[in-house]
């Protein structure tokens, strides 16, 4: 008799009380729910493994989720990339349909359409907002007035994940981070692909299983190729150089691939597990 595989906690839309209706017949004794659409209201919010638990990933302003349970100030949510986890309920609002994303490293929302007016909020790259009105140099949003040059319509995604990865050069390393305030190796890859409207899981092991096609060990590498180790990933910016968020430098840095292979082999006794190419990229 074959034993059923243990569900991946990160992707299993159920807790001890509720389950998404798609799990009917797979779970018993839980309340089946459809989920309620909601939108994140803060620039960056940790997605937790449990109420007051540790950070799994992060969600940015304007991210859409489905709330499966709202209990004791915490919401159990199902995210657009399949992840589940807990966020403070006061960081959610009824579903808002965004129109633009922050397309620069960061930006500010101002109290008025005047660069000398007080700044009321700082937003990271990738945060999503709904434009309400257009002024000469600013867009009006529910968060405030944002410089027009800093926003990009959602129907105009970026085309080069490697270029987006390079935008994050120097960002400090943060385990589970997903923003220009701090991110980890898989967060860098996810942010880069999501900006190009390309689906991407949040963690390196899932990315290795889902993204692109495996390359032979002796294949010539090109810009945008992904290099995986156990628990780590980087992206090539040319045939010999990789950009990656790494704990060695505690930042997003460039590193010759040959140096990274030797360093990781020496320090962590880990070898490259795959080289993968995501087709259809603009490089």
From TrEMBL:
Domain (NlpC/P60): residue spans on this chain: 155-279
PROSITE patterns: NLPC_P60 (PS51935)
Keywords: Hydrolase, Protease, Thiol protease
Biological process terms in GO annotation: proteolysis
Coiled coil: none
Gene3D superfamilies: endopeptidase domain like (from Nostoc punctiforme), SH3 Domains
GO molecular function: cysteine-type peptidase activity
Pfam family, any one: SH3_16
Family recorded in the similarity comment: Belongs to the peptidase C40 family.
Protein name from the UniProt record: NlpC/P60 family protein
């Amino acid at each position: 008799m074959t034993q059923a595989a243990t569900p991946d906690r990160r992707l299993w839309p159920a807790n001890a009380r509720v389950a998404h209706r798609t799990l009917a017949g797979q779970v018993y004794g839980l309340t089946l729910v459809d989920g309620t659409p909601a939108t994140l209201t803060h620039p960056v919010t940790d997605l937790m493994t449990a109420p007051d638990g540790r950070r799994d990933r992060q969600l940015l302003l304007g991210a859409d989720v489905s709330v499966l349970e709202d209990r004791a100030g915490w919401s159990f949510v199902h995210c657009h990339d399949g992840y589940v986890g807990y966020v403070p309920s006061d960081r959610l609002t009824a579903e808002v349909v965004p129109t633009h994303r922050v397309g620069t490293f960061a930006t500010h929302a101002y109290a008025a359409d005047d660069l000398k007016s007080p700044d009321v909020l700082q937003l990271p790259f990738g945060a999503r907002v709904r434009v309400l009105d257009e002024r000469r140099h600013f867009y009006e949003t529910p968060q405030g007035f944002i410089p027009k040059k800093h926003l990009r319509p959602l129907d105009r995604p970026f085309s080069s994940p490697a270029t987006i990865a390079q935008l994050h050069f120097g960002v400090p390393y943060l385990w589970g981070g997903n923003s220009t305030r701090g991110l980890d190796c898989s967060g860098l890859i996810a942010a880069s692909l999501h900006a190009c409207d390309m689906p991407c899981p949040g963690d390196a092991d899932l990315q290795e299983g889902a993204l692109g096609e495996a390359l032979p060990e002796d294949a010539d590498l090109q810009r945008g190729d992904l290099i995986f180790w156990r628990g780590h990933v980087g992206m090539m910016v040319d045939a010999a150089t990789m950009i990656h968020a790494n704990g060695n430098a505690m930042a997003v840095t460039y590193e010759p691939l040959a140096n990274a292979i030797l360093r990781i082999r020496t320090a962590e006794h880990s070898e490259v597990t795959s080289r993968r190419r995501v087709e259809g990229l603009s490089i």
